[in-house]
Amino acid sequence: MNENIGDRAEYQIRDEMEGDAGQLVELFVQLGYPASQEELSSRLTALRGSEDYAVRVAEQDGKLIGMIAFHRERALLQPTCEVRVMALVVAEQERGSGIGSRLLVEAEEWAREQNASYMRLNSGIREERSKAHVFYMSHDYNSGSIGFSKKLLTDHEQQSANKNNSSKSE
């Protein structure tokens, strides 16, 4: 699956594999989700262990320049599954080169193999995401819902909050 990008060197799309986390850390920073190499490696290992998840990377001359992560969701509202894109990022210097389009096509092909009825993704409504929105709309994705989220405290965060509150009341 090599692609030629005009004057640019060829790149290949492949499955993410153990050892990629070190290079993916920088892409996650560019996406706005910094993580340590160890943390990211642990997350990727967990995804690799499930047939419902897939992560593809774009590699050029041994350097990772893009990635997409997606997963199959069992659907309740229609008879077939859906596939949700969890993350899509292309290195800043490679944006506009077609790599993001090729990664999205990879996910869509996988979704068709799963007999999915929909591809879904979320993209923040912040100004820095406006180019991403244009990108998705140019690939026939529609903005069809409003997303809501709520930060839940992990057990560790809750214990820390309780400890801080009890020390303030003393």
UniProtKB/TrEMBL annotation:
Could you say which enzyme class this protein belongs to?
Answer: transferase
> Which EC numbers does the record give?
2.3.1.-
Keywords assigned: Acyltransferase, Transferase
Q: What is this protein called?
A: GNAT family N-acetyltransferase
From the broadest rank down, the organism's phylogenetic lineage runs: Bacteria, Bacillati, Bacillota, Bacilli, Bacillales
